[in-house]
Amino acid sequence: MSSFSTSLSSRTSSSSPFLSNHSSLINSDPSRRSLSFPQGINLDDLCVRSKRKLVQSSVAVGDGAVITKSSSPELKGGPLSIPSQEAEDKLVIESNGGKEHSTVSITVVGASGDLAKKKIFPALFALYYEGCLPEHFTIYGYARSKMTDAELRDMVSKTLTCRIDKRENCGEKMEEFLKRCFYHTGQYDSQEHFVALDKKLKEHEGGRLSNRLFYLSIPPNIFVDAVKCASSSASSSSGWTRVIVEKPFGRDSKTSAALTKSLKQYLEEDQIFRIDHYLGKELVENLSVLRFSNLIFEPLWSRQYIQNVQFIFSEDFGTEGRGGYFDHYGIIRDIMQNHLLQILALFAMETPVSLDAEDIRNEKVKVLRSMRPIQLEDVVIGQYKSTTKGGVTYPGYTDDKTVPKDSLTPTFAAAALFIDNARWDSVPFLMKAGKALHTRSAEIRVQFRHVPGNLYNRNSGGTNLDRTTNELVIRVQPDEGIYLKINNKVPGLGMRLDQSHLNLLYSARYSKEIPDAYERLLLDAIEGERRLFIRSDELDAAWALFTPLLKEIEEKKTIPEFYPHGSRGPVGAHYLAAKHNVQWGDLSLDQ
């Protein structure tokens, strides 16, 4: 039984089990369904959700997992009936001495690390800047490094930026935000140190209904210790406690299952928020909107019209000192098994019953379980080597001092995957991910089939039919946008065709700056919205797909194909695409 407790359970019995999970509240009470919002909603509308006072507890761990509990207790005679929204709101008011106010305490565990400094604190400030955080909130940094409150604020202030459309009060907002930030030094496995943290949190909460969110921005080998101490010594006694967990969620099926089992000794599944920040990116969120709210796309979203789908991720830099971490995981675990596979599941899923988190995640799991085992002959791996350009020498992967000289860890991988269901049978889903490539980008490319008996083939300038194929491109980053390649007549008296783009460039269409993915995911965790977080059965299905492949690569000591730093990757990737009658869309002249 989880040691996280809620206010009602503490009133009934100190040994009462956790309340039924919050998703059941949402499904049973129509007034709660406002928590599941259309994916196209903007951040200003999104912040309306922060005005609601939910009686829950959750903990956030590392890559973004959050755990949430409802406040309806379960007695020996059976579970209590689920309270109505009015009853729960009344409980909130009564528990605060008649004041309709609660407080949220956010603890960043591992506050001295790069992720906290570069992403988590700036995201929290952005939410505060936009008015998305509750009126009463406190942020605590927790780490082993010795630091004062003032030193934490100085460290955090160096990474904060303001929205481009509200710069006039930036300095004032920063000062107000930093006054809410505090620091506590402690070991991640020390009950005593978490008890001291709990005492400090209570001082700031001032007797209000307290909700607590823990973000575990720490190595996975200490997740369980931190969760154990937080759950037993620093969870909320009157509201919710949630935990966000960062990837990696294990290295394979076995280690992932072991981690999940250990976490569930102290947390319920609906308290764990496993974060994949790519699911919080604007264009990934827009994927379902594009498909399900536009009549022109949904009828085409099948094997009948789509020839292949490509998920492409590239970075123009290498490991740069992070080789020690990366060498333990490699590009397949680091990018393909989570980021790209999650996007694939969203892309290929059937229409969910609703936008509720469980309905969406149910459909994603069906896709993952329908996928054909990945064959080694459908995979190409590579590793970047040193090269010299313009008198500048760029280091190879094994030149990194933190990487073994004989490392076979791939920094590039391309794979062909297949979904064995009626909608996608025989359609190749190609993934490609790599470091130290020629550009930095992430995109989804949907290549449609050729027009049967095309009347204009002779007018399109040759016999290469791929040049005349319609293609939908969703550019996740940078320069977020969506464009559709169509064939068009070149103006003039003759009949000559050209391929043109119908282009939606976000920076040109929308004046507002696009929120960072961590902003959206942190706000969702605070609100208990799990739609963009990974459920344990999703994680199991993802590892079941990739574990046999990873095991085969490592057991056979497959040697990666070398490619120059700053190139387009191994030549083998082109042969893989050609094998499935596909041409990589990002390598075409008019990409």
Automatic annotation (TrEMBL):
Residues 1-24 have a biased composition (Low complexity). Residues 289-584 form the Glucose-6-phosphate dehydrogenase C-terminal domain. Pfam families: G6PD_C, G6PD_N. Residues 1-32 are annotated as: Disordered. Pathway: Carbohydrate degradation; pentose phosphate pathway; D-ribulose 5-phosphate from D-glucose 6-phosphate (oxidative stage): step 1/3. It is found in: Plastid, Chloroplast stroma. GO terms for molecular function: glucose-6-phosphate dehydrogenase activity; NADP binding. GO terms for biological process: glucose metabolic process; pentose-phosphate shunt, oxidative branch. Its EC number is 1.1.1.49. InterPro entries: G6P_DH, G6P_DH_AS, G6P_DH_C, G6P_DH_NAD-bd, NAD(P)-bd_dom_sf. It catalyses: D-glucose 6-phosphate + NADP(+) = 6-phospho-D-glucono-1,5-lactone + NADPH + H(+). It comes from the Eukaryota. Catalyzes the rate-limiting step of the oxidative pentose-phosphate pathway, which represents a route for the dissimilation of carbohydrates besides glycolysis. The main function of this enzyme is to provide reducing power (NADPH) and pentose phosphates for fatty acid and nucleic acid synthesis which are involved in membrane synthesis and cell division. Belongs to the glucose-6-phosphate dehydrogenase family. This is Glucose-6-phosphate 1-dehydrogenase. It comes from Brassica carinata. The lineage of its organism: Eukaryota, Viridiplantae, Streptophyta, Embryophyta, Tracheophyta.
